[in-house]
Amino acid sequence: MSKSYIKGFLKDILLHLIAEKGESYGYELTRMVEERTQGVIKLNEGALYPVLHKLEEQGLLVSVFKTDGSRPRKYYRLAATKESKELLSEMESQVQLYIGALAAIFKNEQEWKSAE
């Protein structure tokens, strides 16, 4: 899949998964994305961590180091602010709207092609 598609939705994907799980660390997020998309979307560290750090700088995520086994990991969770919760809700609505719009475009294109 084109990296430009993923780049456009990476912030949304990460915020959704972190909010859904409660908290998560980077490698776990990459595994969740790959598993849920059956390998269609694969995230690398070079794409993942800059977005996580930017979301943290914007106050949308907070992080904490935890040691759960062999080494400390940085866990991210949604900031407990009204703004972050509103943003998450708005973002999820916008993503669903966009996905629906794309489906309508490509459905119509396919119908047009089959009519030829």
UniProtKB/TrEMBL annotation:
Domain Transcription regulator PadR N-terminal per the UniProt entry, residue ranges: 14-80
InterPro entries: Metal_resp_DNA-bind_regulator, Tscrpt_reg_PadR_N, WH-like_DNA-bd_sf, WH_DNA-bd_sf
Pfam families: PadR (PF03551)
Extent of the signal sequence: none
Record-linked Gene3D superfamilies: Winged helix-like DNA-binding domain superfamily/Winged helix DNA-binding domain
Name recorded for this polypeptide: Helix-turn-helix transcriptional regulator
Native species: Croceimicrobium hydrocarbonivorans
UniProt lineage: Bacteria, Pseudomonadati, Bacteroidota, Flavobacteriia, Flavobacteriales
